[in-house]
């Protein structure tokens, strides 16, 4: 039995299947963790959703920002962008079943036995595991409720930019969503900065990767995440970044979680211009 975490697939289903073949993935015994962004920009988002859904409890997937973007478009609260590749999903006979499955996925997954926690993007410096899991559960409950469309209508925006236990309503939910699905950089005061998408290396400003903010409350965790293609495949103590930019010609990355961590990468042809998110 093996456990593998897989970086952002984004509709690159052919590359995913090739990578799983190289891993000799056995769906009867092995498990897959997907760090989110199963869909968008690549040519086979529909096939990807169907495949991961078909794995049942042999796969665990957290929601990413592109997955939430699909939910917003499918609900009618957001118009597709020129680079979105959702038409096949929206026209599929099993569309409603897939959308319902997607909105019931978690935003955080913790496995105490393996000793890893998976999110799509990041954690604000104020959250430890209990706080992060509690906040993720709050947002999951809303997405799984009958009122989820109202939340999708109001989920976009960059404020508030700093955590407070006093946050309530849409501001609290939006902050939780932005951290778990969009976060890359924070300032030294613990405020999140969402507009910056570039590499964290060689910056001239005072922004740091969220995982490098001093006294981060989650520093004792081993965190697996994606989302940050310009960071690429990256490892630091307790940090395992898996988005190596398959969609724009980088690689699709897997990390074996059971036993000593082992990395695997499949070079990809790419479907977008470098740097598109």
Describe the model.
The chain has helices at residues 13-23, 45-54, 65-75, 87-90, 95-103, 129-143, 148-154, 169-182, and strands at 3-6, 31-34, 59-61, 109-111, 116-118, 185-186, 192-193, 208-209, 223-225, 234-236, 239-241, 251-256, 262-267. Helix 1 links the parallel strand 1 (3-6) and strand 2. By secondary structure, it is of the alpha/beta class. It has a five-stranded mixed β-sheet, covered by helices on one side. Strands 4-5-9-11-10 form a five-stranded mixed β-sheet, with no helix packed on it. Strands 7-6-8 form a three-stranded antiparallel β-sheet, with no helix packed on it. It is built from eight helices and 13 strands. The chain has one domain (3-267): Metallo-dependent phosphatases (Purple Acid Phosphatase, chain A, domain 2, 4-Layer Sandwich), CATH 3.60.21. Helix 6 (129-143) packs across helix 8 (169-182). The mean pLDDT is 95.
Topology (elements, then pairings):
Layout (H helix, E strand, L loop, with lengths): L2 E4 L6 H11 L7 E4 L10 H10 L4 E3 L3 H11 L11 H4 L4 H9 L5 E3 L4 E3 L10 H15 L4 H7 L14 H14 L2 E2 L5 E2 L14 E2 L13 E3 L8 E3 L2 E3 L9 E6 L5 E6 L10
Parallel strand pairs: 1-2, 2-3, 5-9, 9-11
Antiparallel strand pairs: 1-12, 4-5, 6-7, 6-8, 10-11, 12-13
How much strand? Answer: 15-25%
- Secondary structure class reads alpha/beta
Q: How is the largest sheet built, in terms of strand order?
A: 3-2-1-12-13
CATH T-level topology:
Purple Acid Phosphatase, chain A, domain 2
CATH superfamily: Metallo-dependent phosphatases
Gross geometry:
globular
| Mean pLDDT metric | 95
